[in-house]
Write a structure and sequence with these properties.
This is L-rhamnose isomerase. The chain has 385 residues and is α/β, with parallel strands linked by helices. The protein has 14 helices and twelve strands. The protein has helices at residues 2-10, 39-53, 71-80, 108-128, 149-166, 192-202, 221-230, 256-268, 291-311, 314-322, 326-337, 342-351, 358-365, 367-374, and strands at 13-16, 23-24, 29-30, 58-62, 84-89, 132-135, 140-141, 172-176, 186-187, 206-211, 234-239, 279-282. The chain is globular, with a radius of gyration of 21 Å. The termini are far apart. The chain binds alpha-D-psicofuranose and manganese (II) ion (2 copies).
Length: 385
């Protein structure tokens, strides 16, 4: 149990700045009370999530959604609040110029603009002390014949190589894949295999990030996790849950068993060891539920799945597996999943001087009432000041 608690204490879950802003679907963005008006206030909200869970000490930024004049000052502000800047997420998907793609666009001018933005994100990493750049490309085509699929891979490789060469000591980039959307016929980085192949070619500072909402229904995500971790190419996760496509619902809400299976492969592959650099990030939007409690709940969901994964009796599992005991092995696995780990986590929090129930403690803190009174005119998640 001591080992399990130590592993849980060492786990860090990163929350995304965009989870704190107003969000919605393409049909409607709902406005909530007390929503941050600028990146400084987003960090203040993220600091609350850390204060009540004790395991969310970093916040991911999305550029230019979190554009500020002085990034070193923003990082200082984060430190003053007891948190740090996590991954810098690039955004080459919201300019009119990117209609036909960003780094794979047939136009050299647009490709230059997109790559320059990625390089600017590395400058922001330098200024904030962030060690991770996250790259997601909305690039692809809607119609057969629209562009040369193979040439687009060449353009992608060229841009990635330029960004890779710009990375400093201790910096890396994570390449994100997504099955479809906004491109519908062919996406330029549609799957882990494509991301992996580019990363292998580039070298150790390029790794793959698994967004749990970016696969076809029924995909065995834990297999992908096991494979990438074995190859040293699992850079981290964008956690969220989905019922249909890229729903960005709270992680562990739709399918807690899948989250457990993923976390088991992380534990099995040594991915909880901070040395491996596996980043546990959330990539979510809280469209209809309150945002800070939504993040607290999500962090707790990842922590619960991790605790269950750590509880798997690996020795008993290995014995059953080596004996070909199909039902015995499965029972060991299910025993851990069916264990109620909430008392263990409450105990762990109390040992760290935290309230045993973060949701209740936050609700009682009065923070929401304070921001609802103070902040008027909060921003949409994607277009923060
Ligand atoms: C794309 O769907 C994605 O998962 C990428 O990580 C983006 O950066 C993020 O969503 C936020 O829109
Ligand atoms: Mn993502
Ligand atoms: Mn997504």
């Amino acid at each position: 149990m001591t080992d399990i608690k130590a592993a849980l204490r060492a786990q860090h879950i990163e929350t995304p700045s965009w989870a704190y802003g107003n969000s919605g679907t393409r049909f409607k963005v709902f406005t909530q009370q007390g929503v941050p008006r600028d990146p400084y206030e987003k960090l203040a909200d993220a600091a609350q999530v850390h204060a009540f869970t004790g395991i969310a000490p970093t916040v991911a930024l999305h550029i230019p959604w979190d554009k500020v004049d002085d990034y070193a000052d923003l990082a200082r502000h984060a430190r003053d609040l007891g948190v740090g800047i996590g991954a810098i997420n690039s955004n080459v998907f919201q300019d009119d110029d990117y209609m036909l793609g960003s780094v794979t666009n047939p136009s050299a001018r647009v490709r230059r603009k997109a790559t320059d933005h990625l390089l600017e994100c590395v400058d922001i990493m330098d200024a904030t002390g962030s060690d991770t750049l996250k790259l997601w490309f909305s690039d692809g085509i809607n119609y057969p014949g629209q562009d040369d699929i193979r040439a687009r891979q060449d353009r992608l490789a060229e841009s990635l190589a330029e960004v890779y060469d710009r990375l400093g000591e201790g910096q890396r980039f994570l390449l994100e894949y997504k099955l479809f959307e906004p491109a519908f016929y062919a996406t330029d980085v549609p799957d882990w295999g494509t991301a992996y192949a580019h990363c292998v070619k580039l070298g150790p500072k390029a790794q793959v990030v698994v967004d749990t909402g970016h696969h076809a229904p029924g995909t065995n995500i834990e297999f992908i996790v096991a494979f990438l971790l074995r190859e040293g190419k699992l850079g981290g996760f964008d956690f969220n849950s989905r019922f249909y496509a890229d729903d960005d619902l709270m992680v562990g809400a739709a399918d807690p068993f899948q989250l457990f299976r993923i976390m088991f492969e992380v534990v099995r592959g040594g991915g909880l060891d901070p040395e491996t650099g596996v980043a546990f990030m959330l990539d979510q939007c809280h469209n209809i539920e309150p945002k800070i409690p939504g993040q607290i709940r999500s962090v707790m969901n990842v922590q619960e799945a991790t605790a269950k994964a750590l509880l798997v009796d690996r020795e008993a599992l290995a014995t059953a597996q080596s004996e070909g005991d199909v039902l015995g092995a499965n029972a060991v696995f299910m025993d851990a999943f069916n264990t109620d780990v909430r008392p263990l986590l409450a105990e762990l929090r109390e040992e760290s001087g935290l309230a045993p129930d973060p949701m209740a403690a936050y609700a009682k803190s009065g923070y929401f009432e304070k921001i609802a009174a103070e902040r008027v005119g909060g921003n949409q998640a994607g277009w923060g000041a």
